[in-house]
Amino acid sequence: MAKWGEGDPRWIVEQRADATNVNNWHWTERDASNWSTERLKALLLPVRVEGEEGMCEVTEVSKLDGEASINNRKGKLIFFYEWAIKLAWTGTSKTGVKYKGYVEIPNLSDENDINEVEILVSLAKDEPDTNLKTLMKQEGAKKIRDAMKTYISTLKTEFTQGMILPTVNGEHMETAPQVAPKAEDRKTAARSSTAPSQSKSIGVKIPTCKISLKDTFLTSPEELYRVFITQEMVQAFTHAQATLEADKGGKFQLLDGSVTGEFVDLVPEKQLVMKWRFKSWPAGHFATITLNFNDKGGETEVCLEGKGIPASEEERTKQGWQRYYFEGIKQTFGYGARLF
After folding, report:
1. Can 22-155 and 208-333 be said to share one CATH topology?
2. Which of 275, 290, 281, 284 is nearest to 313 (CA)?
3. Which of 82, 162, 193, 199 minimizes the number of CB atoms within 10 Å of its CB?
4. In this structure, which long-range contacts are made by residues 106-112, counting pairs with CB atoms below 8 Å and at least 24 apart in sequence?
């Protein structure tokens, strides 16, 4: 497989203002290396696990060597990625003793199944043996593998937008298989194109589904509600740039633009209703997310209901909310552990 920059120049088509690449016939190539570097760091740095022995967390991405690219030939996307990664981790025992170690991932690449990728956990030189190493090797490695799965998934969804079909007036068309129209349909379309245009819309009908999640946080509804509507607090638990206007009709952008939406209704301490979407969803499609905050006496139960989720995105959306919202809030603000 040709690496980035090594494709045959006769087949490479540069991005042009008129989006010329008829029927996606020519070879187009996009470098995903810089995007991948930032994405992998954002996914790996929040990794943290707890057990009877104590807590382990990734503290640094000390090495991230490699490259990634995507190629399009005749409408088929071909992915290339190859990374050598080294992480630093710190373990803290129940008694407060700290240990340092490393995680090495020698070959995260498209040639290996994600479940076969090696994750090597070790302690730093001169560190005494500890059960925290076992915790990191077992539970920590699982979370690291999940992070790599998410990277591969988003590489194949978010980053590929616009590679198959050209844009129309700046709006990305959905990359779905197209069927050649029948002769009668072509004639009808030709007649319609000469008539005065009343309205214009771009999009396709997609199957959708509902999701529901429930979690408990060791804080008050007032405080937890504030976490969801305060920009600085959102940036803290997502570990990424965010902008939001916490008013009815106010817009928001999270995870460096990967998530966007609008506040539909806000009932302080009780409920948040949002129009919400992943960047990779079909253009203009939003789901409706409702968060209900229930006071449980010293705890807050959050019930999430999502409607209009693209059926193909059901599991990813549930995992995203559980990981980046619920788990992120607990880990950042300490709402997941009781203090005695």
Report:
1. no
2. 281
3. 199
4. 107/82, 107/83, 108/66, 108/81, 108/82, 108/83, 108/84, 108/148, 109/81, 109/82, 109/83, 110/1, 110/79, 110/80, 110/81, 110/82, 111/82
CA angle, residues 13, 19, 20, in degrees to nearest 5: 60
**And the tokens for 92?**
């803290």
Q: Are 146 and 49 spatial neighbours (Cβ–Cβ below 8 Å)? A: no
Give the C-alpha distances (Å, rounded to integers) separating 109 from 106, 112, 297, 331.
10, 6, 49, 30
* Phi and psi based region of residue 264 (left: phi greater than 0; alpha: psi -120 to 50; beta: remaining): alpha
Any bridge partners for residue 120, and if so which?
104
Q: How confident is the model at residue 261 (pLDDT cuts 50, 70, 90)?
A: very high
Strands (E), 74-232: 76-93, 98-109, 120-123, 167-168, 171-172, 208-217
Between 72 and 185, the more confident residue is 72
Domain 208-333 sits in CATH 2.60.40.1180? no
Are the beta carbons of 51 and 135 closer than 8 angstroms?
Answer: yes
In a 3-state reduction of DSSP, which class is residue 284? coil
Beta bridge partners of 294: 301
Q: Which of 165-174, 208-217, 270-279 is predicted least confidently?
A: 165-174
Rounded Cα–Cα distance for residues 238 and 230 (Å):
12
Domain boundaries, the chain: 22-155, 208-333
Residue 259's CB is within 10 A of a number of other CB atoms, namely 19
Q: Are 271 and 228 in contact (CB under 8 A)?
A: no
Tokens of 206: 């997609």
Q: How far apart are CA 153 and CA 294, in angstroms?
A: 34
pLDDT tens digit string along 23-71?
444 456 788 899 899 999 999 999 999 999 899 999 999 999 999 988 7
